[in-house]
Write a structure and sequence with these properties.
Layout: H1 2-20, H2 26-46, H3 48-84, E1 87-92, H4 98-109, E2 114-120, H5 122-132, H6 137-141, E3 151-156, H7 163-174, E4 179-183, H8 186-228, H9 230-238, H10 243-277, H11 296-323
Antiparallel strand pairs: 1-3, 1-4, 2-3
Length: 324
């Protein structure tokens, strides 16, 4: 075994030194990198179980963290789509006169954040309701009188479509004479925002825990490999191998673990996405409930993050081992 280590370490060390310090052409560097990759793959195959545990741990971490991120992406899309089409309904009191209605419209249009105020009579509102309830129109035919009030439909400016501005505009409108009620889905907004905030806190906490756990698992996996090869590493040092030469194959091993685990985690998440998205009809609820996966650029960034996690775990392990 020692003879094999010597025969492998001596020429490899010479090649690495030439490549690292730029004493030869790029072919020497390519040859050195090929040796490093071969060594990393060999270590992975020789320690299949340990590397499998590391890959699965990274995959689980990426799966959970990416699931939260995907939820935030789609929740943000829902909010953006909802804000683009938001309307505020202003219901008038039953005894509102024509003059009072015109005065209310003038006051509405003078409020900051209001782009347009369209009057909807009770008869027009009933016609809209009948169109929306075509399959249950018989229920409306039995009504002896129209129970719907006159109303204004308010279109808001883009800068007034966030929850705080909506609340401010609604409070201003509620003080106007002749206004009975202001409706803009405020309860839905408050509940949805609360859920988003809760998931955000949980996502950050769980993501942080799994990040530390992943680095720990990768570090221990590399540490066990280092201990199993400590005699070989010592011989390599004796024949002149630098710490950089010793580190690079292990860095590559950690990065391969991180990349492989990330791809597995994203693959599982994508299968779950396909299963979930099949339950949503295209365009349901005006497109608000459409589910989208990460873009190609985001997926690439996540894979890069997994590679960095693998490298970081390896760096922690090597720093402790080589100092010892």
């Amino acid at each position: 075994m020692i003879r094999n280590c010597l025969s492998e370490a001596m020429p490899a060390s010479s090649t690495c030194a030439t490549a690292v310090y730029g004493r030869s052409h790029s072919g020497a560097w390519n040859g050195a990198m090929r040796r490093f990759f071969q060594r990393a793959i060999k270590d992975i195959l020789e320690n299949r179980f340990l590397n499998l545990i590391a890959v699965l741990t990274i995959a689980l971490s990426i799966l959970i963290a990416s699931s939260f991120a995907l939820f935030f992406v789609n929740a943000g899309n829902v909010i953006n789509l909802w804000q683009k089409g938001i309307r505020m309904m202003i219901y008038l009191k039953p005894d509102t006169t024509e003059a009072a209605r015109m005065d209310t419209k003038f006051r509405l249009q003078s409020i900051a954040g209001v782009e347009e105020a369209n009057f909807i009579s009770k008869n027009e509102a009933m016609q809209r309701l009948k169109q929306q309830m075509q399959h249950h129109s018989a229920l409306l035919e039995n009504l002896h009188e129209n129970p719907l009030p006159d109303a204004f439909e308010i279109t808001l400016r883009p800068e007034a479509r966030n929850s705080d501005e909506l609340r401010f505009v609604a409070e201003r409108i509620q003080t106007l004479p002749g206004v009975a009620e202001v409706e803009y889905g405020q309860q839905w907004i408050q509940r949805f925002t609360s859920v988003i905030n809760l998931f955000s806190l949980a996502g950050y906490a769980i993501g942080g825990l799994f990040f530390m756990a992943t680095v720990f698992i990768v570090a221990n996996t590399i540490r066990l490999v280092l201990y199993s090869r400590r005699d070989e590493i010592e011989i390599m040092r004796l024949v002149g191998a630098t710490d950089r030469f010793i580190r690079i194959p292990f860095y590559l091993e950690g990065m391969i673990q991180g990349g492989a685990g990330t791809l597995v985690g994203l693959g599982i998440l994508f299968l779950g996405y396909l299963s979930l998205s099949s339950h949503f009809e295209p365009g349901i609820a005006g497109g608000l409930l459409s589910v989208r996966f990460f873009s190609a650029g985001t997926c690439a960034a996540i894979v890069l993050g997994g590679v960095i996690i693998g490298w970081l775990g390896c760096w922690v392990s090597l720093k402790q081992f080589l100092k010892g």
